[in-house]
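Hi C.,

You asked whether I'd gotten around to modeling the 458-residue construct. I have! Everything is below, sequence then structure, no commentary in between.
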Amino acid sequence: MHRWQTIVEPFRIHSVEPAQFTTVEQRSAWLAEAGNNLFNLRAEHVLIDLLTDSGTGAMSRDQWAAIQHGDESYAGSPSWYRFLDAVQHLFPFTHVIPTHQGRAAEKILFSVIGGPGKVVPNNTHFDTTRANVEFTGAEAVDLVIPEGRQPDLVHPFKGNMDIAALEHCIQTRGVQNIPVVFVTITNNSGGGQPVSLANLREVRGVCDKYGLPLFLDGCRFAENAWFIHEREEGQGEREIVDIVRDIAALADGMTMSAKKDGMANIGGWLAMNDDDLALKCRNLLILTEGFPTYGGLAGRDLEAIAQGLTEVVDPSYLRYRIRSTAYLADALDAAGVPVVKPAGGHAVYLDARALLPHIAPLQYPGQALATALYREGGIRGCEIGTVMFGRRPDGSEVPAAMDLVRLAIPRRTYTQSHIDYVIEVVTWVAARAGELRGMRIVDEPPALRHFTARFAPL
């Protein structure tokens, strides 16, 4: 087999939508109106939108066809059963509870098992997971391996849980205070880094030792499985579906946003084996989301997710997906732009703290860099750093472990020329990094402030 270097998308483009070209002057004005918060921008004012890969991908011909099969019966829709079969084909948990997206699954689960005095260990909580844990009065604890906090260090599985730290957490905080152990695959807050099967087995062993349930935040399970296939000894000849099932077999349940590796624009689920827990969660689902066979989703959405779950484990798709992300990371690294290494699955993470050492973490170097990329090139990314994670539940503020800017790549949406343009803009801004200044917050909500806070340049 020839080892050609060109990345060939394993699809052809069937329909297109227009993108708007704008000027630096226009974008500067829109930034000011938005309070220098990229979440507040109008989408049509963005040329390359890398804010998130959640629900922003392009659905396939077969997904659009599946939508026509959507049955909108309130209870027991055929679309529900197709969705259930597709989920349990990969994740054979006893109970599958559909939700309108991943954070709804988190809200339901932690409302049932959380509360004051409780502690939830994770390799690294992402923003909504942490917020839903803390909203109940529980504490979210991040226990990623030390390598996962070093952006420029190359390690095949930087998302791994620190096993010694997990045991120490359990012993010092008390088994009775830990309702669940979570592992996020891939580790979004830490650069989209994967978790190995070997590490998951070790986490499972600790959970068995102390009688604790293990849950997955499985948003990017297929990307994680591909990294296992490519990097873990003995996994290279195995089918992706079988690796996913091995991952599932090590867990007692999961939360899932189907807006990522479900390949859909909306949806998610909560799954588990525990009958009593499932009963409590379903009761809350009916109160907040909908009947257990639709969970806040239309039948057409259930159909789109079911089809997406068959497409996401296709090796041709995953090879393209991971290689195209690495293309961006490798080009920026070669240009001297500090990035998290190795490349993650769904995004490239710029190391804003390393690029902007003259901006203190509490002056938000990630926000400064993200706004500069939009102002200069119309590229919308997302700060993953002190803005997102620096505010503590008691109101104090500390620097996050890292200050990153995530360039999340929507699935099957942008071509190589789009990415080449991103490379040009990022390298141009990086060459003038010394001209950037920090920012201050002029208004913020009490939780999840990165979504709506307003900033002013220092």
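If it helps when you're writing up: The chain has two domains: 24-53+315-457, 61-311.

Thanks,
B.
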